Amino acid sequence: MTLARDQVTHVAMLARLGLSDEEVERYRQQLDAILSHVDRLQQVDTSQVGETAQVGGLVNAWREDVRSECLPVEKALANAPKRRRDHFEVGAIQE
Amino acid sequence: MTSTSAVSTLDQVMERWEPVIGLEVHGQLLTRSKMFCGCSADYIGSPPNSNTCPVCLGLPGVLPVMNRVAVEYTVRSALALNCEIPEHSKFDRKNYFYPDLPKGYQISQWDMPLSLNGHLTFTVDGEEVRCGITRVHLEEDTGTLQHAGDILQQARSSVVDLNRAGVPLMEIVGEPDLRTPAQAREYLVRLRQILVYIGVNDGNLEQGSFRCDANISLRKHGDTGLGVKVEVKNMNSFRAVHRALEFEIVRQGRLLDQGQTIAQETRGWVEAKGATISQRSKEYAHDYRYFPEPDLPPLRLSAEFVDRVRAGLPELPQQLAERLQREHGLSAYDAANLTAEREDARAFEALVAAGVPAKAAANWLMGEVARLARETHTPLQGSGLGLEGLASLVKLVEAGSINGSTAKELLEELYLAGGDPAAVVRERGLGQVSDQAELERLVDAVIAENPAAVADFQGGKEQALQRLVGGVMKATSGRADARVVTGLLRERLAR
After folding, report:
1. Is A53 a domain residue?
2. Of B291, B234, B288, which is closest to residue B97 (Cα–Cα)?
3. What pTM did the predictor assign?
4. Which of A69, B148, B264, B301 lies most in the core, judged by the most C-beta atoms within 10 Å?
């Protein structure tokens, strides 16, 4: 298969990555190689296999509605690239 | 294209175009803990980022585990909305990068939701409306963003609070079966009422525990296809929904009349402007690349599970209103009023059970008690007087022991303070003066003291009688039975 450049820029946009033209081409080739490799799965005959999202066989793995302890605010914010008082701070979001 | 189209009113637009409206409602579930972790789901009033853990912060290596009660509440809601519950359902990842969800995806349900194919019926202007419900599914709420600075366009940063991230959220997708803003509003009112009745949601539009987005398009009357739809957001009251839809109908109608096309977009309702404003799209926001959530095994809900939830459903508002009409002879109007809030209906039934006649119970609850509850921000059940006190008070009136105005004064006094109305009446001698001889004596005295009023009345002025009744009431400090006094006066003056 051949991955198009605009598919790469689209995926980069969704991931909020700004790529240079050079990078777009480099990643296009790399992703194309990966996808071609995975594409070999298409050769397997799956006509007799139902759609499978889970193979573990578990169902209804739920818990009761009980509260447990939360992290202290300081710990919750410990890895924040930026914080303002007890909030995470991010670049301005305008909807 | 007509020269007047630019100033078409709502009615004119609706003559030419038929609105097609579908609503999506999100309701937070009243669980104690979040959807996939044990953090408290009670985020309002908690200090920022204090209800978080590695799961809802989206830290690597964590495993979500679903909240059984959230599943049950969603099924309960779906059953109340006449949905089918498929045996198999599952969760999916809805991928998007936005700081309100740190994982980079929201756990939601895509192609195998918890429920399908329901409906809600209600009446608007005497016409029965049936709105299909496509699905009710379960997902997680996002965190909240605040923008620094008063003016959004000048904000250089936003701050994120993740207390709300992961709170169980139910989405109710309605079919585009609504045709007027009034129908949309009534659909929401009924839907909210049901969710509150069955105890899964607190129905707070302002705080956003119950929120609504609307899809609206116009088409020619008689057409069956759909026009280009616009999604409207940011409506946080029933009135806002009504007004936003009216605004959109006029806006779209004028554009179509001018031969223009409608842009498929998301618009936000701006209350202060009374208008919807185009929102810059989160570019390609609809490329969510859903895929099955690998960390959550699927759900398999047995018929027994569903039956058990169904058996636990309380009486729904419509059923309750019908029963109150049937059993207590209430009018449809009174029954609808009394069942608007479940607590009112409960109070009504308790009063009737305590021996208060149904009509009196309904009148007191919807009149004076409703007013006091509003003014004091205290429901009857939480007031000092309480249900028992109210029952005792109304029974004093019904038995003729006190008159209506004394009862109103006592209600006002005892509503918050509490106390036994019968004891207060005894202590203060508030009992109605119903001794015939005593009343006759007072009536005669008032007649003797007010010759002018007597002459006016006998000369044909009906209102003059009220002055005389007032005189007797004054003499008894308001404790006389006004009906008896009026009767006595008429009798005396007719002679």
Report:
1. no
2. B288
3. 0.83
4. B301
